[in-house]
Amino acid sequence: MTERLKELQRQRALVQEHLAWLDREIVREAGAPATARPAAASVAPVESPAAAPHASAAAARAEAEAEAMMAEYRRDPESLQSSVKRGCLLYFLGAFALLALGLVAWYFLRQGR
Fold first, then answer.
1. Quick one: which of 82, 84, 105, 86 has its CA closest to 94?
2. pLDDT score for 97
3. Torsion (CA) 68, 19, 15, 10 in degrees, nearest 10
4. Closest by CA position to 98, among listed 86, 90, 109, 110
5. What is the pLDDT along the chain (113 residues), one digit of tens a residue?
6. 3 within 8 A of 16, measured Cβ to Cβ
7. Half-sphere exposure (CA, 13 Å, Cβ side) for 101?
8. Are 46 and 9 in contact, with CB atoms under 8 Å apart?
9. Which residues, in sequence order, are CB contacts of 59 under 8 Å at separation 6+?
10. Helix (H) or strand (E) holding 73
């Protein structure tokens, strides 16, 4: 068994455990009796070696599609960093302008008395 297959099986088991926990929490919140609790999910059996070539081809295809989708939305880290800096500076200047406007309004309101 390859390391990738072992890791995928481990991840599947973790997801099944999480789903079983979600089922138990849903039943608990719904107020159903304790006997209605769903049984814990068992780990699905490993596929036969005969299905492995087909599964690995499908997995490779899915991985390629996922990588293409990620490349479509990937941004250059330097441009992302500069846009974050620009956004922080704009928020700071906006907050400073609001503070100054508030102080000016307070000054004029105090002069009217």
1. 86
2. 98
3. -160
4. 90
5. 788 898 899 999 999 999 999 999 999 988 866 554 455 545 555 555 555 556 677 788 888 888 888 888 887 888 888 999 999 999 999 999 999 999 999 999 999 76
6. no
7. 6
8. yes
9. none
10. helix 52-73
* The pair of three-digit structure tokens given for residue 13, joined into one six-digit string: 């088991």
- Tell me the three state secondary structure of residue 84: helix
Cα separation, 99 vs 82, whole angstroms: 26
Q: Can you read off the two tokens belonging to residue 104?
A: 């000016």
Residue 22's SS3 state is: helix
DSSP, res 47: P
Look up the pTM and report it. 0.36
Beta carbons of 31 and 7 less than 8 angstroms apart: no
CA distance 61 to 9: 19
**Token reading at 37:** 């609790």
- Give the CA angle between residues 42, 48, 54 to the nearest 5°: 115
